[in-house]
Amino acid sequence: MPGVESPFLTGHLLVATPQTGGDVFRRSVVLLLHHDEEGAQGVVINRPLDATVDAVLPGWEEVATPPARVFQGGPVALDSALGLVSVPGGGEAPMGVKLLFGGLGLVDLDIPPLVVAPEIAGLRIFAGYAGWSPGQLEDEIRAGGWYVVDAEARDGFSADPESLWPEVLRRQRGNLALVASFPEDPTMN
């Protein structure tokens, strides 16, 4: 029906609240790639690792958006890689790309990089992903573990991914923007 919003959050950002802890999710920003009644999957877009793209996937570094490092996409399936791409123009998906939403898609990393390179505007490689079982994400949001905000097209390909948590919060309206200045260690306040 027109005007009815989906209860699902595909395409949104999950921004960890200050009380969210752990090595992977503390001050993380997660781009939700899929969310429905069967659960949710996304990638942490602000956790670059020390590994270069070329060290993990030779040939893809030239195509990768700087910094050309592998990102820790989440705690699930760390031995697998996902390639998030931006496809300009919103037309048909290029060969080897599965479009998800808003010009973003996943690329098949088994195809030669030169096949897809002319068709994309950005590429980020993630080791692993974040996953939630049915109802788990909704419970975490209700418990105050995540802020749900709109994503911008550039978020997944930020040139300064480590600054994404405060940057995303600062652009929010009202009191949520104030959270960006919350100290890493609340005892230092």
TrEMBL record:
<dbReference type="InterPro" id="IPR003774">
    <property type="entry name" value="AlgH-like"/>
</dbReference>
<comment type="similarity">
    <text>Belongs to the UPF0301 (AlgH) family.</text>
</comment>
<protein>
    <recommendedName>
        <fullName>UPF0301 protein FB474_0859</fullName>
    </recommendedName>
</protein>
<dbReference type="Pfam" id="PF02622">
    <property type="entry name" value="DUF179"/>
</dbReference>
<dbReference type="GO" id="GO:0005829">
    <property type="term" value="C:cytosol"/>
</dbReference>
